[in-house]
Every structure is written in C-alpha cells, then in structure tokens.
Amino acid sequence: MNEKELLQHYKTSGDLSTLGKLYSPYMSLLYGVCFKYLQDPDRSQDAVMQIFEELIQKLRQYEVDNFKSWLHVYSKNYCLMQLRKDKRTMQVDIEDNLFESEQKLNDTSEAKWEERDFEKLEGCMQTLNREQQECVRLFYLEQKCYKDIADLTGYDLNKVKSAIQNGKRNLKICMERKENGK
Amino acid sequence: MENNYQLSRIHNYIHGLMSKEEMFQLEREALDDPFLQDAIDGYRLQNGVDARQLSLLQQRLNRRVEDTIATRHAQYFTWQRLAIGATAGVLFVTLLALLYFNHFNGKAERTTDVELSEPENRISVEPLLDGGDATPREGWKTFEQYLNKQLMASVRGGEIIVNFTIDKNGVPANIHAEGQPESSLFDEAVRLLQTGPKWQGTKGRLKIVFPVKDEKNQAQANVIKPPHCFGIAKK
User: Fold this and answer.
1) Closest C-alpha to B52, from A30, A22, A28
2) Which of A32-46, B82-96, B172-186 has the lowest mean pLDDT?
3) Domain A111-181 listed as CATH 3.40.1500.10
C-alpha cells in the first residue's frame, strides 16, 4: 500500500498498525523538527510519541490530502503549543514561517519557461537587496552550497540560508506580479 | 528506507561529510521541503543525529502499536469471558425463576381454590323474572352481600325457589316455596328475606342457592390450575 492507501485504510479501519506504518517513516524527521522547537532530547521524543497519539483521533476525523506537509504543519503547531504552555517565549523567525506557508504555492510553478520569462527573472533579480541577489545567484546559478557561499561572501551560514529563502520568495512574488501586470 | 537515507544525508550534511554538490542538492531539496529544512535545523541544533535515540523512539512506537493490539486481544478475551459469565447468569436466573414459580405454583393453587370456590361457597340468588318485578332497593349486589353476611353457618346446601309479594313497607311477605324444599332452607330463606334490605316492585320470584360446604371443598381441592398461570390468575 502506498501512503494514500494507508491513510485511507487507517481512516476506515482505525487499525493502529496501519497508522504506525504511516507514521514511522517520518519519525526521525519529526524528531528533528521537534528538537528545533523544544530543544530538549527527552521532550522531543515525548512530543513525537504524543503527536502519534493525537493522530489516532485526528486522522480519522480529517480528510488529509498531503500527509507529509500536513504532518509537518501539525507537528510544528504541536511544538509551538507546548512552548506556549510553558509560558516560554520563543523567537520564531517570521521570515522562515512566511517562507514555509507560501511553500504550498510552489508546486504549481513548474510551467514552461519562455525567453521573456528569463528576461523577467533578470528584471526581478535587480529588485532584490544585495545580499539576497548575491546568495541567490551563487546558489541557483552557480549551484554552490551554503557553506561555500558563506565562505565566499563572508556572511554567516544562517544569514545565507535566510537570504536564499527570502530571495526565492521575493523573486516568486515579483514574477507573479509581472505576470499579472501585463 | 527513504527515511534512513534522508537521515544519513542529514547526518553527513551536519558533520561536513558531504561533497559540495551533495550539500547543494540537499539544500535545494530543503528549500522546497520545509519539513526537511526544519528537521535539518533541529539536528543541527542537536549537533548531529543520534541513531540510538531514534531507534529507541522507533521501539516506543512499535510497543505502542503492539500494546493496543494486545489490549484489543485482552478486551476480546474479556468479552468472551463476559459472554460466558452472562450466559451462566441468565441460566442461573432462569433456574431460580423456575424453582420459585414451581414453589409459588403450589401456593397459587390454594389461593385460586378460594377464588374458584367463592361462588360455590357463597349463597347466591337468581331472580326469576317470569315470576315478578321485584328488585332489592339497593341492588342485587348489596343484597347478595347481605345474604352472605347473614347466612347461618349451620344451614345445609341446596336450592330453593321462593315466591313472595312485597308489602307497602318494601318487605317481602306471603313467602312460599315451590316444590318440597327442606324446611331448614325455607326457614332460613324466609328469615333472610324478611329481615333483609327493602324491596321495590310488587312480587318476586327468586332462586336461592345455599352453598354445600363440606363436599364442595373436597371437590375444589381437586381443581388443578394449569402450571403456566403461576398464581397470576388471581384477580
């Protein structure tokens, strides 16, 4: 059974071993996600198990289309809720989160590119700030990894990452605006 | 499988064990896959992947799933036991009920005897309308109750038909019997009529049946109620 079939099977049967099969492949990624927010190994493990417990109900109630991204968002929310319960504030990079919530739109952007699209892209590149432009070029055109870019530019690794993420997002917005504008 | 593959990539990535091309490739994927990106961020914070930890986690999940299956089995067996228990309980109650009703039935017979014997053990009157228009002023029922209250125990059973007229005070007069009844019966009938409730109408004709006590009681003892009545027949 593939993931969709497993999901459907679980929804109708409520068979826990099916849910286990569905969940298990994501556990190590989930652990990473939980650790990112909770920053504690034990809590993160518990969170992974607790999320599983919640899925037992939720997956029977909701129609889940894309399990992977649904699970990601669900887990992230779960962790953020945990933090809120702690009354601990946590700095969540708004840029990061914007980037992620727009991620869903990405799937449709595999359209054919024509000559003028490249011109448009070049135009849009000019609108990015210097850091973003630099990092995006190095990453997408020269296919350099973050570390190389950091070395080349002297920026911090995290700065490179967010410059690329934000640059990518801005480019996308710019391209769509031009698309609609003309 | 894909899971482990990703995990080892993350591990290699964080520990700088990847070529630049591989790093680029993973970074590129992560840009399109926020889940992956978050996981990489998390493992980087943790300074690497701890395989032992993850296998423990996997074990926890397996145990969780198995537990539920085991619980379900346990519940299944519990249900089975419950079913057996319930059946035994029902059988037991049925048996008790049977015993109880069997026992009760004996009692019921006696109770019913009284009931059945009532009309026989009591004196009854039957107005013979062809002979007159007289009715007791307070109704037949009251009259019959009066008769039963006043009947002398010594009187033997038997039937008697009496004719009488009613005087202006509503008291039966000119009472005479038909045929040749026993004189004790006739005397008793006269006594009952003359000291009893007032009548209306002009003349009456009654058949009075006096209970035959000893013989009838014996006959009634032989009456057997159908067992299914369980004494419920008592009204």
Assistant:
1) A28
2) B172-186
3) no
